[in-house]
Write a structure and sequence with these properties.
Elements: H1 4-7, H2 12-17, H3 23-27, E1 34-39, H4 43-54, E2 59-66, H5 69-80, H6 83-86, E3 96-98, H7 102-108, E4 112-115, H8 122-131, E5 135-138, H9 146-162, E6 166-168, H10 176-186, E7 193-202, H11 216-222, H12 228-231, H13 234-237, H14 240-249, E8 257-263, E9 278-284, E10 290-297, E11 304-311, E12 314-319, E13 322-325, E14 328-329, H15 337-350, H16 358-377, E15 381-382, H17 383-387
Parallel strand pairs: 1-2, 1-4, 2-3, 4-5, 5-6, 7-10
Antiparallel strand pairs: 7-11, 8-9, 8-15, 9-10, 11-12, 12-13, 13-14
Helix pairs in contact: 4-5, 4-15, 8-9, 9-16, 14-16
Length: 421
């Protein structure tokens, strides 16, 4: 199989010349069936599939793909437990695809593609879907390195030109409370923003222990969260949510530099791959605003996931459990933000007004990667250095044997020794 690096060199001119069917016009009337395909059948992918099927009256899940057959089978079984969802399942055995190339077959048979494989694969899968003229739901983050971010930005611009929807899994932007609170802050409720703080303190999550028969690739793919090349590290894979909220609060401005520290204090065994369990980054914007970003994933500690906004006229708390600005607290209607993402995606397709979240989903991912670069190296990192980084976390090939990456990409980063690249 060609590497992601080779795949992304495909000529845009050749793509433009191809006679690809665009689903927008074919399904804008709302009466035609929209065929949904799922790539990545883990928990988040299964959830996304259920939400997609609940978002529109005339949709069916017709294809599924995953690196592992057992995950695909489990996902299909879970979806079938819901009677309403089960009625929209039409995944015949010949449309259940397994392996690294499964995404190609899913895309061929779908109108709307749900991308929920490990983040490393997002640029590759997104490009293939958009080139084929398919609408996309892309889970966060959308890349694990700067070359991936640059590729996604290009792909999302191609989607815009082709009239295709690209909706991001940065779900907090689809939450009613967040939308109201951020809107009030944008309208001047606390004056000019001076300081931001993004907290993501949480406990442990799953870990997949290595079995004797597993090759390096199989174990790392099954235990993908703990390898930087697959997940981006947890400050990219999960903390990107609140970093994106801060980006939203800053009206999609991005910092000019960052410095930080991080490491592994609790998750030190080989089962935890090479990611950190704590990151603390200070981002600085051109206008002097600072964003203090803190995330930690350690069991038995205080948990907190929130954004704090300090303005010239007041303070705001923006968090899933509470939205408060001075004496005001959000008490409006609550919504399931995960469902709303899909409701708005499918509505935009039917109305012929496709949503494109490409710009912020790409650059918020880069914001998180920039923070990782700062914590891994111990150096000050500028935005230009981050976006132009040449560090490419793509293995030489996707095969069930050794994982062939630069040696420094598979060891634990050491601040002061790990180099910027």
């Amino acid at each position: 199989m060609p590497s992601r690096r080779d795949f992304l060199k495909t000529s845009a001119a050749a793509v433009a010349a191809a006679n690809l069917r665009v689903a927008t016009s074919a399904h804008a009337a709302g009466s035609d069936l929209l065929r949904v395909g799922l790539i990545g059948c883990g928990g988040r992918g299964t959830g996304a599939a259920g939400q997609a099927l609940a978002a529109d009256r005339n949709v069916k899940l017709v294809a599924m793909g995953d690196a592992f057959e057992d995950r695909l089978k489990t996902s299909l079984e879970q979806l079938g437990k819901n009677r309403e969802i089960a009625a929209k399942l039409d995944v015949a055995p010949e449309r259940r695809f397994v392996g690294f190339d499964a995404y190609k077959r899913v895309i061929e048979t779908s109108d709307v593609v749900l991308l929920a494989a490990p983040p490393h694969f997002r640029p590759l899968h997104l490009r293939a879907a958009v080139e084929a003229g398919k609408h996309v739901f892309a889970e966060k983050p959308v890349a694990v390195d700067a070359p991936g971010v640059r590729a996604v930005l290009e792909t999302c611009e191609l989607a815009r030109k082709k009239g295709l929807a690209v909706v991001s899994g940065l779900c907090l932007r689809y939450d009613n409370g967040f939308r109201d609170a951020v809107g009030r802050i944008h309208d001047g409720a606390i004056g000019e923003i001076r300081t931001l703080q993004a907290n993501d303190y949480r406990g442990r999550i799953w870990v997949k222990l290595r079995q004797p028969a597993m090759t390096d690739m199989e174990w790392q793919m099954r235990n993908w969260y703990y390898f930087t090349w697959l997940s981006g590290d947890f400050n990219v894979e999960q903390h990107v949510h609140y970093l994106d909220v801060c980006t939203w609060l800053m009206k999609n401005q991005y910092p000019v530099k960052a410095v930080g520290m991080g490491g592994r204090q609790v998750r030190t065994g080989p089962e935890y791959g090479n990611i950190y369990d704590q990151h603390a980054v200070v981002y600085e914007y051109e206008n002097g605003v600072r964003l203090f970003s803190n995330c930690r994933q350690q069991e038995g500690c205080h948990n907190d996931m929130s954004a704090h906004v300090f303005g010239s006229k007041g303070y705001a708390l923006v968090a899933e459990h509470r939205h408060q600005i001075g004496d005001w607290t959000y008490e409006g209607p609550k919504n399931n933000m995960y469902q709303t993402e899909h409701d708005e995606l499918f509505r935009s397709i039917r109305e012929g007004k496709p949503i494109n979240n490409g710009e912020y989903m790409s650059k918020s991912t880069l914001l998180a990667i920039m923070g990782r670069m700062a914590t891994y190296t111990g150096q000050r990192v500028t935005w230009d250095e981050a976006i132009n980084s040449k560090l490419d976390l793509t293995p030489k090939s996707y095969a069930w044997g050794p994982v062939e990456l630069p040696p420094e990409a598979l060891v634990v980063a050491m601040p002061g020794k790990t180099k910027l690249s």
